[in-house]
Amino acid sequence: MRGLYPAAAALVTLAACGSPQPAVEEGLPGGCEVVGPVVVAAGGRSNMPAPGVQPISRYLRSAANAGAEVTVVDTGGSPKPHTSVSFTATAANDVAAKEQVKAAADQLRSGLETTVAESEGAAPLAALDVSARHIHSGSPMGTIVLVDSGLQTMGILDYTQRGMLRADPSDLVDGLRGSGQLPDLSGLRVFVVGLGDTAAPQEALDPASRTALVEQWTALLTAAGADCVGVDPLPLTGAAPAVAPTVPTVPVPDVAPLEPSNTVVLTADSVAFVSDSAQLRDPEFARKKLASIAADLVDSGSGVRLTGTTATDGTEAGRLELSRLRAEAVKATLVELGVPAERITTRGVGTHHPGHVDDLDSDGRLIPPKAAQNRTVILTVRDE
Fold it and tell me: Is the peptide bond before 51 cis (omega within 30 degrees of 0)?
């Protein structure tokens, strides 16, 4: 926390000027500024590196320079505030002000380094809600620094469900909004540190999965009304706390090329599409997943039928057309990999296929991970 001590003189100046001002810290993610009050939502739990001061030091420097109040909220199954300090210097002289800032910094450091979630599970979304309500109780604006992998294990945003890491961001937003679970982040700047960063026993996320996770959380925070969203690109590293509540591990999609077979179901784990379109979210990743299948088709001279399927969204005609276009997109990828176009046929069946799973809740809303499972292209090899 040494980086905070030189802020004492700046704090005296700010205090003399009245209310806190936006802090000047170069290069904060998203072009966002830190304004007070500030809440750091972090919690020591299994499956992610232990939180601490160093990864968020630049946000704390900004908070200190702004003379802000900083509160810590844990991100376990039942989030709540537990440490609060003020960086507004009230002492009569510079020496006393420096000591005042040092004491606040030491208290905050202790709160961050010893914080351990008090209950099982990971609930960063609930921690955001608690953090926002804490700020809004006294100010229309403020800053939240969420230190978390983002791999929630509770509620609609439960990433232990198969398909969640490839769920469409708009589906997640619609589900959370429809069930009243989007927090009110209006007037708030939100920074996320450690998004997608894991620790044993949680398997590390591949780049495509982390990119998808960042897109999901960015969409979620934006939809919740955040004034500015910044995802910190610096990785959060280290081991999980030695003693912490248990959190279930999240299944991570296999990045290895798909093995050739007579029938292969291409899910969002291998071939993911942009919402309501036939555009591949990650064309290079799709090519890698399909490389072995394409090579086998080229060598065998076999033909292949591609059948597109969809979630229960939109109109019947729209689902049939979208599923056909997605089958065509996979065909284009196979052709790029050397499979002759004349050996590939395509069709779209929408929701009319044996593998379709019920992807609507009792209120008729899409269930994001179930919807992701239904968005497939089925590859069937046939002899020419």
Answer: no
Cα–Cα dist 286/333, whole Å: 8
Q: Which CATH number does the domain 263-382 belong to among 1.20.1070.10, 3.30.1330.60, 3.30.70.1230, 3.90.550.10?
A: 3.30.1330.60
Q: Does residue 301 have a pLDDT over 50?
A: yes
Across the chain, the runs of DSSP E, i.e. the strands, are: 38-42, 69-73, 81-86, 142-147, 188-193, 228-231, 263-266, 303-309, 344-350, 377-382
- Tell me, what DSSP letter sits at residue 250? P
CB environment 72-104: b (16+ within 10 A), e (fewer): bbbbbbebeeebbbbbbbebeeeeebbebbeeb
Q: How many CB atoms lie within 10 A of CB 107?
A: 15
The reply to whether the predicted model has a pTM over 0.85 is no
Query: What are the tens digits of pLDDT across the range 142-171?
Result: 999 999 999 999 888 999 988 889 888 998
Residue found under tokens 């001590």:
5
**Structure tokens given for 37:** 């009050």
Indicate the angle between helix axes 283-300 and 316-336, nearest 10 degrees: 70
Instruction: Give the pairing type, strands 69-73 and 81-86.
Output: antiparallel
Choosing among 1.10.390, 3.40.50, 3.30.920, 3.30.420, the CATH entry for 2-231 is 3.40.50
Are 255 and 286 contacting, i.e. CB atoms less than 8 angstroms apart? no
The rounded distance, in Å, linking the Cα atoms of 252 and 333 is 24
Q: What is the dihedral of CA 351, 176, 168, 262, to 10 degrees?
A: -50
